[in-house]
Design a protein that fits this description.
The protein is of the alpha/beta class. It folds into 2 domains: 112 residues, NAD(P)-binding Rossmann-like Domain (Rossmann fold); 181 residues, Rossmann fold. It has a 7-stranded parallel β-sheet, sandwiched between helices. Strand 7, helix 8 and strand 8 form a beta-alpha-beta unit. Helix 1 packs parallel to helix 13 and helix 5 crosses helix 7. The protein binds nicotinamide-adenine-dinucleotide. Nicotinamide-adenine-dinucleotide binds next to helix 5 and helix 7.
């Protein structure tokens, strides 16, 4: 019987479905135990991970029977994909399965930060009554700039347009015809910085995108934009972001992803209740609904692949 190893949380019905077909080992803590993982992976045919399990060349080289990796999510930066493609290991991400959750998160943050909700909440719940001192703005009529116009960028554009926002995007890999189908104008990166009231990032982390939002980018931006990053941490330089906020170059920010996760004290010690910011623990894509979709999708792909 073929063996499947699941190293992080997967919805139970999907685990059970695979257990009808294969010898499944399901241990949500396995990603923390390198020695056990290394021994179990040696004779497994498929491995299913989220983003905590580091499938490095060192580990994968021990997995002589491995032909399939299912990723319960989208980003593949915890998997040595070069090693996989050179060694006949197929990597299956759950593309699009948590995109609605992330898109809703981006709209939630856009609305909350334009309305200064984090500051209003703190003021009100601490007995102040900051009714007239806090500025509140609408998303309608604002320009939302999307860095990256892939699966999630497109979903965000659709929701933002419902609120009456104008959407522009920078993505050199997307043709004009594709963007215009979504009523989105493609612009140069500098123009996106210059025009956007809200900038939301939907890029993969690559050598080109690492540190893309840095001290220089902030100098190119329209006055007081809001920055939202739900893609990958190191795309935004966190030090430069805090500096830009403290200098009032930006009026708010939301981060779901960080250069180091869990987020380090060196970063969060600079955050206070009086700031217009929202920090979340890399869970914008994790909802009750997306958990089911992601798990069912990967279970189905694993079963089909292993059955050949
Ligand atoms: N926080 C979460 O829970 C969560 C959940 C899902 C996805 N993500 C992350 O969100 C990001 C976007 O996901 P997606 O599903 O939309 O991916 P996608 O691959 O569909 O879209 C990414 C887009 O970025 C574009 N792109 C690549 N390099 C670029 C560059 N240098 N400049 C401009 N555009 C570039 C690509 O052409 C593509 O259209 C990924 O980093 C993914 O890992 C995070």
């Amino acid at each position: 019987m073929k063996k499947v190893l699941i190293t992080e949380f997967m919805e139970q019905d999907s685990v059970d479905k695979m257990s009808e077909n294969f010898d499944v080992t399901y241990d949500t803590c396995l990603h923390e135990n390198q020695a056990k993982l290394s021994s179990l992976i040696a004779n497994t045919n498929a491995v299913i991970v989220r983003n905590k399990t580091q499938l490095t060349e060192d580990l994968l080289s021990k997995a002589k029977q491995l032909t399939f990796i299912g990723r319960l999510g989208v980003g593949l930066d915890n998997i040595d994909t070069d090693y996989c493609s050179n060694n006949g290991i197929f990597v299956q991400p759950a593309t699009g399965m948590n995109a609605d959750s992330v898109a809703e998160y981006v709209i939630t943050c856009s609305l909350s930060l334009l309305k200064n909700i984090p500051i209003a909440h703190h003021g009100t719940s601490s007995g102040q009554w900051p009714r007239t001192s806090i500025e509140s703005r609408e998303l309608g009529g604002k320009t939302l700039g999307l860095l990256g116009f892939g699966v999630i960028g497109k979903k965000v554009s659709r929701l933002a347009q419902v609120f009456g926002a104008k959407v522009i995007a920078y993505d050199p890999f997307v043709p004009e015809s594709e963007a215009s189908k979504h009523k989105v104008s493609l612009v140069k990166q500098e123009d996106l910085f210059a025009l956007s009231d809200v900038i939301s990032i939907h890029l993969p982390l690559t050598d080109q995108t690492r540190d893309l939002i840095n001290a220089r980018s902030f100098t190119l931006m329209k006055q007081n934009p809001i920055i939202i990053n739900s893609s990958r941490g190191s795309i935004v330089n966190e030090k430069d972001l805090l500096q830009a906020y403290s200098e009032k170059i930006i009026s708010g920010f939301a981060l779901d992803v960080f250069s180091s996760e869990p987020v380090e004290e060196d970063f969060y010690k600079h955050i206070s209740y009086s700031m217009n910011c929202i920090l979340t623990p890399h869970n914008s894509g994790v909802t009750t609904e997306s958990n089911v979709r992601v798990s069912q999708f990967i279970a189905e792909k694993t079963i089909n692949f292993l059955r050949g």
